[in-house]
Amino acid sequence: MATAPKTAKSASVQASRHEIQAMHTSKFLTDDERKLVFYRMLQAREFDQSMIRLFKQGRAFGGVYSQIGNEATSVGSAFALTMSDAYFPMHRDVGGHFVRGQELRTMLKNFLAREGSAMRGTDGTGHYADVERKVFGNVSHLGAMIPVAAGYAMAAKMRGENTVAMTYIGDGGSNIGDFHEAMNFATVQRIPLVLIIENNQYAYSTPSHQQYACEKLSDRAKGYGCFGETIDGTNVELVYESCKQAVERARKEGMPSIIECVTMRMRGHAEHDDFSYVPKELLETWQKRDPIDRYAQALIERKLHTQASIDALRKEISDEMNTAIDDVVALPFPKPEEGRKLVFVD
Which CATH superfamily is domain 28-328 in? Predict the structure, then answer.
């Protein structure tokens, strides 16, 4: 007779998920690409910090879902795609939008609901699609994106296109039916799909050890018959290399992959949430593993940057962000009738 896992075992499993891996050096990246990856990570962090300030000032619309602590996962995974591949990000994947070439002012128009935004001011955050860049932004029912991404990849396969779809889900969202149905379907049909699980320890306020009993979420791949791997999600070159291999596996073999990136959500579920339910000691532990600080130190050790050049880069990105915010804030709001467009078919 099966028995429920003991509390002590759950605590042990929870601790094992916090293991940190030594900074990886990928043989697939050039030094120029490393600098670009770092730039995108800094850009993503600055965007988040700016949006937090704008939210507190009452100038941001909708929720502000910070990806602070998740930059290595969002940037590293997206960097593994080609521009012919399809990108289905979640709300904490701003870095991936920049990797896909999204313009800063386009992003800000969406978040600040200004005239000319892709959503026409009807929604904020990353709820938009950019067909040219093959970016298909998240829907609020996050698990529902997985079958959509699988369907996109299957349609591309049927058209004879060599396209891989990459999408994301959190540790909480991995427990709903859409996740299981889509991954089973994708594996049976040999659909070129890569699923990134952003395991950031909490599904809103529910810690991961209260969500599932398996040791690793990637272990579920065995049940579907696809590839699964759990990695340190703060280690950007490791994320990139694992995802690059998953993309190649999907493209050449039609083999889906589940890549579980273990990170920590360093802010609340959104900025309205004070995340007082997260132990301070846990946040302090993960602060020492900050993905940007870790990669900055690695690049300094490899003599690709100095502290002075990193400081200058941070200032350049901050100045560009502030200028873009001023430009977008000065734009008018969309006309009210925009809210009625593309809602119903006559």
Answer: Thiamin diphosphate (ThDP)-binding fold, Pyr/PP domains (3.40.50.970)
